[in-house]
Design a protein that fits this description.
Glyas_Fos-R_dOase_dom; 224 residues; 22% helix; alpha/beta; Glyas_Bleomycin-R_OHBP_Dase; 42% strand; 15 strands; 2,3-Dihydroxybiphenyl 1,2-Dioxygenase, domain 1
């Protein structure tokens, strides 16, 4: 996953302090975020100020072109068609039929997360949608084996928008990072210039709070 930010240096300071990440240059106008030397995310400078300041979750696929065709056939759309990212792989942006945007990643030399589910790393992606039955059908068809067929611990769920957000909030994915202590994490977010968007609440996958960083990108912190 990556964050598109107007100020990359401010993002490095915020997330480096919050999660203990270190950073190194990556191809293009982006940096790798690492924890204990393992890749956990990327931060990228927004190429266009009209683009939203957001975290994007990417689903791995062996064939981004083929998956893109399936997405459009199922009523979604390709926002950005697949394009090469150096020798690291190929990326694309898509939207489901309700407008929630997500990424596709066809790995080359970069397979994706080097570490997850530990404090300071990705732990969960929640889709907030207005039609859970339609979302189940769309994503179940696209990613059935990945989501339901492996027997591995799930990393993905969905809920109605109005469970956490105002009814006018558009459907979207929300990236969750695991933290060791939720109160400490929320205190750090506020100290670093972010804000609490939704105070802690209980879910089936842990205790969660929704926050924004110091540039307006929303994400969640999760204590399991």
């Amino acid at each position: 996953m990556d964050a598109q930010l107007p100020d990359l240096e401010a993002g490095k300071r915020f997330y480096g302090d919050l999660f203990g990440w270190t950073f190194e240059e990556a191809p293009g106008s982006s940096v790798w975020a690492r924890l204990d030397g393992e890749p956990v995310a990327a931060l990228a400078r927004k190429a266009d100020g009209r683009m939203p300041t957001v975290w994007t979750v990417y689903f791995a696929t062996p064939d981004a072109e083929a998956l893109g065709r399936r997405i459009t056939a199922a009523g979604g759309q390709l926002v950005v068609p697949p394009f090469p990212v150096d020798r690291l792989g190929a990326a694309a942006l898509a939207a489901d039929p309700q407008g929630a945007v997500f990424g596709l990643w066809q790995p080359g030399s970069h397979p994706g997360f080097g570490r997850r589910r530990a404090p300071g790393t990705f732990a969960w992606a929640q889709l907030y949608t207005r039609d859970t039955a339609a979302a189940n059908a769309f994503y179940g068809d696209l990613f059935h084996e990945a989501l339901f067929g492996t027997g591995a611990a799930p990393d993905f769920g969905r809920a109605d928008v109005c469970e956490v957000f105002p009814a006018e909030m558009p459907p979207h994915f929300l990236a969750h990072f695991r933290v060791a202590d939720l109160d400490d994490a929320l205190g750090a977010v506020q100290r670093l210039g972010g804000r609490i968007q939704a105070p802690p609440f209980e879910t089936s996958y842990g205790r969660v709070a929704v926050v924004t960083d110091n540039q307006g990108a929303s994400f969640a912190v999760l204590r399991r």
